[in-house]
Design a protein that fits this description.
The chain is of the alpha/beta class and 456 residues long. It has 14 helices and eleven strands.
Length: 456
């Protein structure tokens, strides 16, 4: 990561990033370019360096902000029509920490509206394109952030991961993407999707950069009662010896080239002296069903605040209070948002709560316990991120079930609260990126990154 100093200025770094953003404009990576403010901040950092003053660990480093992080710079829309016109009066804790160290946000990145999706096609601003193949999706929901890093526009980008929204786009674009332990990084100031599953993380080009960002962003926040004390900077890591592979994930539903690269990576680890442990985790086959009950239930609660009254978009057709609610939500929410609201209301409704939501909550506990048992047998688990590599734009957009199946191997980590790191491991015969995910027990984030450095 290039840091501003007396030989390379923050202004030069920011100008280069802004030029690249314009160069790759057709990829639809950004919803807002922060040119004026970014250059102003860069000049301030350069002035400090010239005066010999101390600057932060990210001095002058350009970064991209997923457009569901609150910040006064530009509108925070979460790529949704219903939030058009909303300028935040507050700044997300994670953004404050990054910018205190001198990072400079050059733009807000596109996402599936309210982070509902796996392809960044469900955006009010239109789809983002894959960094390697323009005709394919970048993954979702953090597709814009992944593409911004993969196209080398910025050094790093922020993301959110509720069921794979960092790891899958990282895999599709050939970069590193970390979903930390639940509670590792404050969620304050980030548009909520499903509050018991949401995690804040990053996209980077190297595990070393990921380590630096985690050391800055981690820690307890009085504004988010779910945050944990800063275990990341106090972690003692020991060398991993046993790597688990999940037997249930080795099946014909997974693309052959992904299965092949997983086996090759396991063989490579064995040759380096690691023990490969085959795991049976039968409860994981229920994870997707559990996720798509719990997540929509929390989505419907979190989206109820968008009513056209307090902020954001309001329908001009409305003639009375009921119409304001109905018309604003009908026009403001994307089809996928509406789909999840309907599912959420159904599983929480009288007569169905016990049959669906309560049963899913109990099954979630079993998934947590299954991971705990698995980590008694191994140090980390190595799995595919997704059953597929990047698919064509439009291929699954009209088939919600096919799109949901993209989350098959990623959602269980969010249900269990464990960290997962997507790592680039190769390419398909057509040159598309292939990624795998390293999974560790809770609070093993630093150890995961250290292990990734060995695999680099």
């Amino acid at each position: 990561m290039k840091i501003a100093n007396k030989t390379i200025t923050a202004t030069k770094l920011v100008k280069e990033a802004l030029e690249k953003a314009k160069k790759y404009e057709k990829y639809n990576v950004f919803t807002f370019i922060n040119e004026k403010e970014a250059l102003k901040k860069a000049a301030e950092i350069d002035a400090k360096i010239a005066r010999g003053e101390k600057v932060g660990r990210l001095a002058g480093v350009p970064y991209a902000l997923k457009d569901n992080f609150l910040s006064p710079e530009g509108q925070t829309t979460a790529s949704a029509h219903i939030l058009q016109g909303f300028t935040s009066p507050v700044t997300a804790t994670s953004v404050e920490k990054l910018e205190k160290e001198g990072a400079i946000m050059i733009g807000r990145t596109n996402l599936d509206a309210f982070a509902h999706g796996s392809s960044t096609e469900n955006s009010y601003f239109g789809p983002t394109h894959n960094a390697v193949d323009f005709e394919r999706v970048p993954g979702g929901s953090s597709g814009g952030s992944a593409a911004a890093v993969a196209l080398d526009i910025v050094e790093f980008a922020t993301g959110t991961d509720t069921g794979g929204s960092i790891r899958q786009p990282a895999s599709f674009n050939g970069v590193y993407g970390l979903k930390p332990t639940y509670g590792c990084i404050s969620r304050y100031g980030v548009v909520a999707m499903a509050s018991s599953l949401d995690c804040i993380g990053f996209f980077t080009k190297t595990p070393e950069d990921m380590d630096l960002l985690m050391s800055i962003a981690s820690g307890q926040d009085p504004k988010d009662m779910t945050t944990l004390p800063d275990y990341y900077n106090n972690s003692k890591t020991s060398k991993a010896k046993r790597i688990g592979v999940i037997k249930d994930f080795d099946n014909e539903a997974v693309a052959p080239e992904i299965r092949k690269v997983l086996k090759e990576k396991c063989k490579e680890l064995e040759e380096k002296g690691y023990e490969i442990v085959e795991l049976e985790m039968p409860t994981l086959k229920y994870a997707l069903a559990v996720y798509y009950i719990i997540q929509p239930a929390e989505v419907t609660s979190n989206l109820s605040r968008y009513d056209g009254i307090r902020y954001g978009f309001r329908s001009e057709k409305a003639k009375n209070l009921d119409d304001i609610y109905d018309d604003t939500r009908n026009e403001g929410f994307m089809p996928e948002n509406k789909r999840r609201i309907m599912i959420g209301n159904f599983v929480l409704s009288s007569g169905f709560y016990d049959a669906y939501f309560l049963k899913a909550a109990k099954a979630r506990t079993l998934i947590v316990k299954e991971y705990e048992e698995a980590f008694k047998k191994c140090d980390f688990i190595l799995t595919p991120v997704s059953p597929n590599y990047a698919f064509k734009l439009g291929e699954k957009v009209n088939d919600p079930v096919a799109m949901y199946l993209e989350d098959l191997m990623s959602v269980s980590l969010n249900l269990a609260g464990v960290p997962g790191l997507a790592i680039p491991v190769g390419k398909t015969k057509d040159g598309l990126p292939l990624g795998l995910q390293l999974v560790g027990p809770r609070r093993s984030d630093k150890a995961l990154i250290e292990f990734a450095k060995e695999l680099n």
